[in-house]
Amino acid sequence: MNSKKFFSRAVIAGVAAAALVVTGATAASAAEGRDAGDGRKLEQPQTNGSLDTYFLLDGSTGAYIGETDANSDGWIDTAFAPSKNLVAVGNNNGTLGQAATYAAMDPAIVTGGDNSWDQLYVVLDDNISQGISNWSAWTVSAAIDRKAAAFTSLTLSGKTNGNPGIAAVLAAGGTYQHGLVFTKNNGQTVVGAIYRTVDITAGSTYRVSTTQYYTAPAFVPDFANYAATAGASAKLVGGSLALDATASNAGKTVDIWVEGEASAKHSGVVLNGSGKATLTSDVAADKKLAIVESNAVVAWVTTADVSVPTDATDAATKVIIASPDEGVRTVVIPTGAANANQTFRAYGWSTATDLGLITTDANGDATVDASALSYGDHTIALVDGAGDVVAWGTVTFSTVTETNTDLEVDVTVSGIFSLTGVAASVDLGDVKRGESTTASLGAFKVTDDRALLPGWTLTAATSPFVNAGAGNDQIAASALSIAPAIESGESTGLTIAGSPVAGSGVFAEGAANSSTLEAGTTFNANLTFAAPAAAKAGTYTSVLTLTLVSK
Questions:
Q1: Which of 185, 378, 473, 532 has an alpha carbon within 20 to 30 A of 282's alpha carbon?
Q2: Model confidence over 438-458: pLDDT tens digits?
Q3: DSSP strand E in 320-416: where?
Q4: Element spanning 108, H or E
Q5: In whole angstroms, what is the distance from residue 120 CA to residue 130 CA?
Q6: What's the pTM value of the predicted model, to 2 decimals?
C-alpha cells in the first residue's frame, strides 16, 4: 500500500452582518412568472428566492436603470452610491421621465393573495423574512396602497431604523437582501416580500443583482401521451434497430428518443422512400420510442426483439457469391434491384458472427467485409429488420502459402509499483460563502511495472474541514470536489473517475494486464471547494489521503 497526505486550506470571507440565509431555488425548479413589460417572462422564483422582483428608476430623472452585465457575473455593472435616489417599479419598458407609464408591483404574487397586510417597509437585511425586530436597517414606505406597492423609494442610505443601523451596515459592507416587505402585527409578521440582492463594498458603493428571465426548457417528447402509430415498428436484431415509421414519413430526417432519456438517442437518421431506416443501436427491447422531426413527434413505436437466424437454408433466397482472391476476405452479395439502397445486417457462419450493417448500392449489391471470419468455407447472409434472410450464399476464403519461423523475445520489467510526487500541501485560497474556489492538486505519478500486472486502485479520502479559530466548526468533506485527470504517460487500460469525486472515492484504476511502463503515468486533479452559506469566517483545514493498492 502507498499513501500520501497533504493539507488544504480554505478561508471564508466574513462580514459584520449575520450569515446570509439562502432562500433561493435551483434553476431546475424555476417556473415561468409574470410579464416583465417588454414581452419577456420573469423566472419564478428568482435565483435569490424572491417570487417576484422590482425594476429601478432614477428617482431624480425618471430614467430607467438598465441592467448591463458585461462580466456575466449576475450583478448590474453600475455601482451606486448609498445616497443614490432609486425608485422601485414593476416593469421595464416605461417612458423616460414619465413615471406614470411604469406599472406598480402586485403584492399578491408574493403574499399568495393574503390581503391582511397593513404596513409596507423598505428593508435591508441578510434575511428580510425575520420581521422588524431583527432587521439590520429599515424605513416605513410612504406607499401603502393595499392593492399595489407603487413607486417605492429604495435609497439605501435613507433607512432610519434597525439594528445595527444603516451606518454600521454601510461601514462593514457585505451581501444583503433589499426590497419591499409586506407585514402585519406592527411589522412582526411578514406576509410577503419582493427583493433583490445587493453587494455593499465597505464604506463605498454597492451593486444590485440582475433580473433572471424565464427560458423555456428544451424539447423533450411527452411520453405520457404515447399512442402507438398504426403500421409503425421498431425491431431489434443482433445489435440493429430496424425502424418503420410508415410511408407517410418517407425521406424525412428524424431524431430517435427513448423514454426516460434526457436527449435523443440517435440524431439525423434519414428515412428511406418507404419511411424505414436500419441503424446500430444498444436500445433495449420493450422501450417506447418517439420518432421526431423538427421537435414534433411523427411516430410512436415500442422496440421488439427479433431472433437472429442460426443459419440460412432457403433455396429461394440463395445467391452466388464469388470467392475472392487468396488472402482477401471481402465479398459482394447480389440481392437484386428490388433491394437497392437498403440497409441490412450481415452474418457469417459456421459460428454465427455479426459482420455489421451493410447498405446495398443502386444495383442491390452489398459489399461485405468478412475479415472477422477465419479462412475456410462459410455461409454469409443479409438479414432485414424483421430477422428474415434476404439473400445468402456460400464462399471459400483461402490463404496464401505460408512458412513458419520461430521467434523468441524476453520481456524485462523493473518491478516498480509506487505512488510518488504527491504535493505536501495545497492552498485553496479565499472564498466567500455560497461560492467556490478551485486549485490544482499538482502532478504526481503512479508506476506499475510489475511482472504479472494484476491491476491497481487509487482512492482519495478527504477528512472534514475544521476551523480551529471558530470552535472547531466543521464543513463536510463532500464540500471538496476532486476532478482527476491523466496528464501524460501510458494510459491504455487506465481509467479515472467519470465525474468529480465528492470528498472520497475512487480516483483512478489500472485494469489487469495494464502497465504504466517503467516511466510511470502522471496524474493531476482540480480541487474545487464549495463554501456553505453557514460557514464561519476563518481558516478551514482538511487532509486528503491518496492510497494506491494492488488488485
A1: 378
A2: 999 999 999 999 999 999 999
A3: 330-334, 343-349, 353-359, 365-369, 376-383, 389-397
A4: helix 108-111
A5: 15
A6: 0.43
